[in-house]
Amino acid sequence: LDDSSGGRSLFERILAADGSDDEKHLLVRGRHCFVLLNKFPYSSGHLLVLPNRAEPDLEGLTTAEHAELWSLVTASVSALKRAFECDAVNVGINLGPAAGGSQSDHLHVHCVPRWVGDANFLGIAAETRVLPVSLDEALAKLRAAWEWPAPHA
Known about the structure:
Layout (H helix, E strand, L loop, with lengths): L9 H7 L4 H4 L1 E4 L3 E5 L9 E5 L11 H22 L3 E5 L16 E6 L6 H6 L8 H11 L8
Antiparallel strand pairs: 1-2, 2-3, 3-5, 4-5
């Protein structure tokens, strides 16, 4: 991190930054974790679930952070399915620089909606993204579909 970061990770700075949650494309603030739309998504609705504090390792999470993180991942997958009517969702974490994580100082779970026949190869072939839905529209769709904590039966 550079000197202007105050020792905080990129995601901690986003969480603490001035501006509304809408402006930051922050979907949900939990007690220990939050959900943020990816500014550079692989597909429309690509979001990140992460602890409020920078922690690089799963085993470094507290019990409360761990429970809330996975609860929010589950809620995120459900909201993506409702909001985007996707055929599937990729859920993944890159732990450590060697795993390909560009922000390896602050673990984050990617939730990426997928469709049969989607154009995912374009990102590999030409660093091109096909995003028929803007970040603002994706945020609105996900908020409308969001259920967390899950409603009681």
